[in-house]
Specification:
By secondary structure, the protein is mainly beta. The protein has one domain. The protein is built from 1 helix and 7 strands. This is Siphovirus-type tail component RIFT-related domain-containing protein.
């Protein structure tokens, strides 16, 4: 699993920064209703709605060479996600699932070209 962050013309995968994504949780967006009241009428008049916020939590493991590189990579990730300009976050799945395909001695897996 991976996460793609697209901002303007650039796109960055979290795996390219050394982050192994373990879990991705997102919530439904919150909707803010706009209503108006009219003098002489009971109730309110619907004046539109807009999405206000959506929470996305990504858990993972970050592999770095030193504490300095850890802090540097953390700053890069925070810079990607802290901006007033809008950006897109896409959850990415592997195209093929090799998670439960194990090779026994003497067997060949379908996706490999080598046989021992």
């Amino acid at each position: 699993m991976d996460v793609l962050i697209e901002k303007g013309e650039s796109s960055t995968k979290l795996s390219s920064l050394g982050l192994l994504v373990l879990d991705f949780q997102d919530t439904s967006p919150t909707i803010e209703l706009n209503k108006r009241t009219v003098t002489g009428r009971n109730g309110s008049v619907y004046a539109g709605a807009r999405f206000t916020e959506k929470t996305i939590k990504v858990s993972g493991r970050l592999l770095t060479q030193s504490n300095y590189h850890f802090e540097e990579t953390k700053d890069v990730i925070n810079a990607l996600l802290s901006d007033v300009e809008p950006f897109y976050i896409t959850k990415m799945y592997p195209e093929e699932n090799f998670l439960y395909e194990f090779e026994r001695p003497g067997d060949c897996l379908l996706y490999t070209s080598r046989c021992v």
